[in-house]
């Protein structure tokens, strides 16, 4: 399936595996790129030398284009971006702002810069800032979300932007891809759908939590990491007050995070100072990360939080990436051909 997006990225199908912190590591990113989509490696929870090694691993597993995702509040952000540039990663996917402006760096001409926007204004701003394509993320999506539904933000962004718009938030199948193209997007980016695939390196209990959940269960809450985060709270979190503030809640969270993420206490203090710049609640964020980490790596879903979109309610299987992408493309083509059947005569 050829669109402006497949031409821009040099991929076979207009399907992107969205960057997912603590989730989209080498096996998933490589599998998606090998299946003809665009796999995106997350830069989260790695020091610069780990990231360099992982970028090289993806390259050794696929000869197709791939991307790396970073967000400015990741520990070691500046050094991680430096590695992304030095390793000449083909596609730089970025959440929250323009990394080149933030760090006073020049965007390499050959690199595709593909930021995410949660409002039309942000999308227009990112185009002005030199984005080659913009991922437009609707409110129903997994992870940190804004307030606007995909069905509104995608066509509006497509009307305002000259660069390709990539529809994100709530897509999982061929009907979704066909609808995204009808709304003016040049392709889709999916997080939750790729979370529930065989190659996704998270604990099977976390994948099961996604395929068992109904669309009502993936809620937005600020109680986990202090930001507007969509996901499925574990049953033991039902009465969770959130916003840990007492020492006996905060200290284990910080220590747990330091243990799991290889971040030194010094680096953690640096992040806390950095967070003030973004007016982000650093302590809550750090404790929240510890909570996802044990959900994803140890399968502790009951006292954890499975980051996921509402689309979990439409996901019922755990296919491999090749099977999933082929199925989505086949269904989208069939949907487009048979649309006229929906018209009453
Ligand atoms: C587990 C998970 C982790 C995520 N982490 C990030 C991240 O680190 N950076 C980012 O830009 N977006 C992140 N997102 C958002 C995705 O990139 C994507 O925009 C979203 O998943 C699309 O909605 P969907 O889940 O309905 O497909 C995450 C989403 C999920 C489900």
- Sheet having the most strands: 8 strands, parallel
User: Helix and strand string, N-terminal first?
Assistant: HEHEHEHEHEHEEHEHEHHEEHHHEH
- Structural class, judged by helices and strands? alpha/beta
CATH architecture of the largest domain: Alpha-Beta Barrel
In terms of topology, how is this protein built?
Blueprint: H1 4-9, E1 15-17, H2 26-34, E2 39-42, H3 48-61, E3 66-70, H4 77-86, E4 91-95, H5 99-102, E5 112-117, H6 120-128, E6 134-137, E7 143-144, H7 150-160, E8 165-168, H8 174-182, E9 187-190, H9 192-195, H10 204-212, E10 219-221, E11 229-233, H11 247-261, H12 265-277, H13 282-298, E12 305-307, H14 321-338
Parallel strand pairs: 1-9, 2-3, 3-4, 4-5, 5-6, 6-8, 8-9
Antiparallel strand pairs: 7-11, 10-11, 11-12
Helix pairs in contact: 2-3, 3-4, 8-14, 11-13
This protein binds flavin mononucleotide.
Describe the structure.
- This protein is α/β, with parallel strands linked by helices and 345 residues long.
- The chain folds into two domains: 4-203 and 314-342, TIM Barrel (Alpha-Beta Barrel); 219-307, no CATH class.
- Helix content is 43%, strand content 14%.
- Strands 1-9-8-6-5-4-3-2 form an eight-stranded parallel β-sheet.
- Helix 5 links the parallel strand 4 and strand 5.
- Helix 3 packs parallel to helix 4, helix 8 (174-182) crosses helix 14 (321-338) and helix 11 (247-261) packs across helix 13.
- It starts with a helix and ends in a 7-residue tail after the last helix.
- The mean pLDDT is 90.
- Bound molecules: flavin mononucleotide (FMN).
- Flavin mononucleotide binds at residues 18-21, 23, 42, 44, 69, 71, 95, 116, 137, 141-143, 168-171, 189-193, 195, 307-309, 311.
């Amino acid at each position: 399936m050829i669109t402006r997006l497949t031409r821009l990225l040099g991929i076979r199908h207009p399907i992107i595996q969205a960057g997912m912190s603590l989730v989209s590591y080498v096996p998933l990113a490589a599998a998606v790129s090998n299946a003809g989509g665009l796999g995106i490696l997350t830069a989260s929870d790695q020091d610069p030398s780990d990231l360099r090694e992982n970028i090289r691993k993806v390259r050794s597993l696929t000869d197709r284009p791939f991307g790396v995702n970073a967000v400015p509040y990741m520990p070691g952000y500046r050094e991680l971006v430096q590695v992304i540039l030095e390793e000449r990663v083909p596609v730089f996917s970025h959440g929250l702002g323009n990394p080149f402006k933030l760090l006073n760096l020049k965007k390499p001409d050959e690199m595709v810069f593909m930021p995410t926007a949660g409002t039309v204004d942000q999308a227009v701003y990112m185009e002005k800032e030199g984005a080659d394509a913009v991922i437009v993320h609707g409110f129903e999506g997994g992870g940190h979300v804004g307030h606007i539904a995909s069905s509104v933000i995608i066509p509006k962004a497509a009307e305002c932007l000259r660069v390709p718009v990539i529809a994100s938030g709530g897509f999982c199948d061929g009907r979704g891809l066909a609808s995204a193209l009808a709304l003016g997007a040049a392709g889709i980016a999916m997080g939750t759908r790729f979370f529930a695939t065989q190659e996704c390196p998270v604990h099977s209990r976390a994948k099961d939590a996604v395929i068992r959940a109904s669309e009502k269960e993936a809620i937005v809450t600020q109680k986990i990491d202090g930001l507007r985060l969509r996901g499925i709270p574990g049953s033991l979190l039902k009465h969770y007050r959130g916003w840990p503030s007492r020492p006996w809640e905060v200290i284990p969270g910080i220590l747990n995070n330091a243990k799991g993420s290889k971040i030194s206490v010094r680096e953690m203090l640096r992040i806390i100072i950095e967070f003030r710049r973004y007016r982000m609640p650093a302590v809550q964020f750090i404790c929240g990360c510890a909570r996802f980490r044990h959900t994803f790596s140890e399968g502790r879903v009951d006292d954890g939080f499975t980051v996921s979109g509402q689309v979990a309610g439409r996901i019922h299987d755990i296919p491999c990436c090749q099977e999933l992408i082929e199925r989505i493309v086949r269904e989208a083509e069939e949907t487009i051909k048979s649309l006229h059947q929906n018209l009453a005569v």
